[in-house]
Design a protein that fits this description.
The complex is a heterodimer of chains A (about 425) and B (about 350). By secondary structure, chain A is α/β, with parallel strands linked by helices. Chain A is about 45% helix and about 20% strand. Chain A has 15 helices and 16 strands. In chain A, strand 14 and strand 15 form a beta hairpin. In chain A, helix 2 crosses helix 13, helix 2 crosses helix 14 and helix 14 crosses helix 15. With about 350 residues, chain B is mostly helical. In chain B, helix 12 packs antiparallel against helix 13. The chains are: A alpha/beta (about 425), B mainly alpha (about 350). At the A-B interface, helix 1, helix 2, strand 2, helix 3 and helix 4 of A face helix 3, helix 12 and helix 13 of B.
Chain lengths: ~425, ~350
């Protein structure tokens, strides 16, 4: 019993100390502008979200060190790991919600976006998200996406394969099998509008299968797809799932071509899949690539990454998403503060400034956003494939078709009440 | 049960009473008053913590009736929570029911589904029954993910509004807190009383030895189904509150991890005691919250620039370590620690008697 008492007492003291330290630390940072970030960083989506936070940290480091901050203030990030637990995400959100400087939040996860979508608007917190299930982002509100909707990413792939398909020589339509996750993220490519689009393009859907994130048996789904006559496999998959599929496809000699979203077309994939990925997988991304070494933004980011000491494995596609979050913040504040002053900055001003960016806003040469009263996602992207061990573009920049349910379309209706009383400084 | 020195039960009612002494009544009333006035001085963060703890508590109380008292181990409890959540969401979204009417319906629907998945308990016991409830988790979630897309909106989930009553907007945590706490208190009271009833004693009898229970006249099959129905009714009510708190229902909200976490709450708190469920949920929710605080700090202590890579991992390890240490030093759960503390207090300066 004594042991238990002492253990509990020691835990309580340590916890109180940690709690107190974290609070005093936050309070002492008034000279900073704080951006907030929560995501699953210790479970299934850590492969995306940890690099993303590294990208956030490094870009903040760059802005603070080389640009002197924004409008005289330095940046900082406060982050928390919700471990893919919505109830934890909710309490983290509540912990931050009442803070006067809580106006900009970066998240990555469709489930929390969908759950908090209405609250973002009620609290007037601008959210920059890479979880882009359509109901997480739309109807247009305070959530802004940093990647195109998954439905548009599929459409981009469908456009390409049908344009390249030799209809005369083959004498038939291209056949496609869906192999994806049985979760909203995975099933985003199976929505009725997406299937309609595929049909309109003349693609024949021959099979639909669900697989887990960690694939133990890659032979069975690939064999089933091959037996169904598939030429292409498309899945809303992370690179960790695609690697065994690609390797097995090569080993079995099936010759299937793969299509995936931006999280599949990730930097570690060529490293892990090696030859099996060469010319066999297409992915959509609205971002520049690490392989484009002549691009000024890539040169800058490479320099920062080298200065900070990042490994190549750290520079996954999530890293760019983090960079985009901070650059979004940088641009908005650089534009809004001269107009309204720091005292005038609040969530509503933030959102309006983002909406004023319009179509194809160039974010430092890294990505182009369509942020208007109606639009909340990047709409310009291209297909990339693996060549010589790195991702390289196969198409020019294309405008996405904008596949979105009719009931989710329309401009954000601003409330007639005054903004939430938030004086950040 | 131990009583303070000099307190004797002289009537049967006294022996049966949950609250037996004046100080106990005072403590209970004080605690209820504290719960009632909490929103006046607690912030939104703490209220949200209390709301989510209350919802989890209702679910775990149900699991405690099913597993702790009736001995029917369930690894699919969160799926029954999902049944309640979807019932409320669909009734509000597609049929425009009032929230208050959907709450009992959520409990009844979950109870019905629970009875269905309880049928294998006629033939299965222990690990085999565990596997069948695990199957329930997957079957039910696959159902919501794939069936009736016009109602369940599989990929998109269902948006739900928080209720209004007499002009009170329950979107604010201060108001919704009362909804959850009142229901949680009532259901805790019901759970505590249930196990002292004829049915409750029958649950314990079949848990300890179902053959002996049958010999003394308990209808074991019916009793097991009762346990499933009541346990899942609790889960359904928790689901209904979950749906309205998050204003959204989606299959990933109800993954198996949460079912296992509920079971963890029971083990840490003390299986087969109502107070154990309360302690277990509180303790593990506090740990969850602490982890979100300490992960950035731990990461920065090791390497500020690599904190995002190190912090979350260290936090998970530290929380797992706390649970393991706890189970080593107090395998009978927090409920037992509580009894020991009370006994120490009552017997001081003599040695405690448990």
């Amino acid at each position: 019993m004594k042991k238990v008492t002492w253990t509990v007492a020691a835990m309580a003291v340590v916890s109180l100390f940690l709690f107190a330290t974290s609070e005093s630390k936050a309070a002492a940072k008034d000279e900073f502008f704080t951006m907030y970030y929560f995501a699953d960083m210790s479970r299934g989506f850590a492969t995306v979200n940890v690099p993303r936070l590294l990208g956030i940290q490094d870009t903040i480091y760059w802005i603070n060190k080389y640009k002197g901050g924004i409008q005289g203030r330095k940046l900082r990030v406060e982050w928390a790991d919700h471990a893919n637990d919505l109830s934890v995400a909710a309490t983290i959100y509540e912990r931050w919600r009442t803070r006067k400087n809580f106006v900009f939040l970066a998240v990555c996860g469709s489930q929390e976006n969908e759950a908090f979508h209405d609250r973002y608007a009620e609290d007037e917190v601008v959210v920059s998200s890479c979880g882009v299930s359509e109901t997480g982002i739309y109807p247009a509100s305070y959530a802004f996406a940093t990647i195109p909707l998954y439905s548009d990413q599929f459409a981009n792939f469908a456009d390409y394969i049908t344009a390249k398909w030799d209809w005369k020589a083959k004498g038939r339509a291209p056949k496609l099998a869906f192999i994806t996750y049985d979760i909203p993220f995975g099933r985003a490519c199976l929505q009725p509008l997406v299937l309609e689009y595929a049909k309109k393009k003349g693609i024949e859907i021959v099979d639909t299968q669900f697989i887990p994130i960690i694939v133990v048996d890659a032979t069975t789904p690939l064999t089933r797809a091959k037996k169904a006559g598939a030429d292409y496999v498309y899945g809303q998959l992370a690179y960790v799932t695609l690697v065994p599929l690609l390797k097995e496809n090569e080993k079995l000699g099936y010759g299937l071509k793969f299509g995936t979203n931006n999280f599949g077309a990730d930097e570690p994939l060529p490293l892990l899949a090696g030859k099996a990925a060469e010319g066999t997988i297409l992915g959509t991304t609205p971002y520049k690539l690490w392989s484009e070494k002549n691009e000024p933004i890539i040169q800058t980011l490479s320099k920062i990454a080298e200065e900070v000491g990042r490994r190549r494995q750290d520079l996954a596609s999530g890293y760019f998403l983090g960079v985009a979050n901070v650059l979004t913040l940088y641009d908005v504040l650089s534009q809004a503060v001269p107009k309204v002053g720091w005292a005038g900055i609040n969530g509503r001003v933030f959102r309006r400034q983002l909406e004023s960016w319009g179509k194809g806003y160039d974010l430092h040469g890294l990505v182009k956003f369509d942020y208007t009263a109606e639009a909340r996602t990047p709409m310009i992207a291209r297909l990339v494939e693996v060549k010589n061990g790195q991702w390289t573009p196969v198409t020019d920049w294309n405008r996405m078709p904008g596949i979105l349910r009719a009931d989710l379309k329309g401009a954000y209706k601003e409330p007639s009440t005054s903004p939430k009383p938030k004086s950040i400084f | 049960m131990d009583r303070p020195a000099g307190v004797f039960d002289v009537r049967y009612e006294q022996d049966m009473a949950v609250v037996r002494t004046g100080p106990q009544w005072a403590t209970l009333i004080g605690f209820l008053i504290l719960l009632a006035v909490l929103p006046l001085f607690a912030g939104s963060y703490f209220l949200s913590f209390m709301i989510l703890t209350g919802i989890a508590l209702i679910a775990v109380l149900g699991l405690n009736i099913l597993t702790g008292y009736a001995g029917q181990i369930s690894l699919g409890h969160q799926a029954f929570v999902a049944v309640g959540a979807y019932t409320t969401a669909v009734l509000m979204d597609s049929f425009h029911w009032n929230f208050w009417a959907t709450v009992p319906m959520a409990g009844i629907a979950a109870a019905g589904v629970g009875v269905l998945f309880g049928l294998p308990s006629f033939r299965l016991k222990m690990l085999y029954l565990t596997m069948s409830t695990l199957a329930a988790q997957f079957i039910i979630m696959a159902f919501f993910n794939h069936a009736f897309p016009d109602y369940f909106h599989s990929v998109s989930g269902i948006r739900v509004n928080r209720p209004e009553l007499w002009g009170i907007d329950f979107r604010e945590n201060e108001a919704f807190y009362y909804v959850v706490i009142v229901i949680a208190v009532l259901m805790t009271f019901f759970a505590k009383n249930l196990v002292r009833s004829r049915s409750g004693r029958a649950f314990v009898a079949i848990r300890d030895n179902d053959l002996a229970g049958e010999v003394i006249g308990i209808n074991v099959a019916r009793c097991k189904l009762y346990a499933f129905a009541i346990g899942c009714f609790y889960a359904g009510i928790a689901g209904s509150l979950w749906a309205t708190y998050f204003r959204n229902v989606n299959p990933p909200h109800f993954h198996i991890d949460v079912s296992i976490w509920y079971l963890g709450c029971l083990i840490v708190g003390g299986m087969g005691t109502t107070v154990g469920a309360v302690f277990g949920v509180l303790f593990l929710r506090i740990i969850k919250e602490l982890v979100t605080f300490i992960s950035p700090i731990l990461g920065e202590m090791v390497s500020p620039i690599n904190a995002p890579k190190i912090g979350p991992g260290l936090a998970v390890i530290s929380w797992a370590l706390v649970v393991v240490l706890f189970l080593i030093f107090e395998p009978r759960g927090l409920a037992h620690t509580w009894e020991v503390l009370k006994s120490r207090f009552r017997h001081w300066p003599f040695k405690y008697s448990i």
